[in-house]
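Why should sequence recovery work at all? Because a backbone constrains its sequence more than one might expect. Tight turns favour small or flexible residues, buried strands favour hydrophobic ones, and helices have their own preferences. The token representation captures these environments compactly. In the example below, the structure is given first.
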């Protein structure tokens, strides 16, 4: 097992080899394998890369980052400009459902909230917005839900607003196609139930993700 002194030496070396990090500005402290980084950097990307380089070092048991992002004058943007840039870049990401992410910016810190179907979408969003000019940090509040969970939740919300009709949706996968079957049930005053199959919606997951995303959005 490495001593704290050895871990600190290795972290400093890793930071020296990271081309996006000014290692001279980053202070490293280690206690029981927990690394604390502090000092000023000129961008959020530099702070992120310093943390990633540290976590790759063998012997690091945990990381606490107190690095402060001090943007140069040329990189400063107001919150409205940053929010507009985030919205624009998200619209260019074709594999994201439309209007699925809520963006808030407070003093350069971006807060992302909403629901996505895949972890790669979440990673792509985080990896993209951190490179934008003016960003000081990113709060990731995005959640991952399955396709069936998204539809069921949407139908549940819709059912409560539809005069007693209770909807149920089922997904039936077959190869790359998926069928969404929607059934509505309404109890009568006599206790009997009226059931009606609303529709069956075929769509494709792999070959046409935009279509499936639009379908889910229509149920919200």
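From this structural description, the recovered sequence reads:
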């Amino acid at each position: 097992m490495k001593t704290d002194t050895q871990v600190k030496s290795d972290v400093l070396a890793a930071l020296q080899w990271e081309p996006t990090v000014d290692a001279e500005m980053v202070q490293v402290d280690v206690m029981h394998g927990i690394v604390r980084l502090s000092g000023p950097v000129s961008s959020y990307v530099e702070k992120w890369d310093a943390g990633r380089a540290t976590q790759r070092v063998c012997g690091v048991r945990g990381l606490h980052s107190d690095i402060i992002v001090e943007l140069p004058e040329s990189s400063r943007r107001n919150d409205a400009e940053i929010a507009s840039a985030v919205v624009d870049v998200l619209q260019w990401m074709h594999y994201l459902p439309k209007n699925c992410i809520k963006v808030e910016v407070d003093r350069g810190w971006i807060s992302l909230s909403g629901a996505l179907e895949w972890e790669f979408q979440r990673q792509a969003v985080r990896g993209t917005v951190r490179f934008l000019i003016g960003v000081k940090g990113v709060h990731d509040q995005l959640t991952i839900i399955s396709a069936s969970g998204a539809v069921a939740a949407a139908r549940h919300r819709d059912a409560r607003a539809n005069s007693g009709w209770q909807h149920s949706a089922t997904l039936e996968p077959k190869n790359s196609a998926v069928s969404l079957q929607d059934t509505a049930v309404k109890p009568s005053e006599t206790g009997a139930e009226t059931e009606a199959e609303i529709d069956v919606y075929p769509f494709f997951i792999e070959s046409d993700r935009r279509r499936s995303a639009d379908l889910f959005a229509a149920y919200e």
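A few observations help interpret the result. The chain has three domains: 4-70, 74-144, 147-218.
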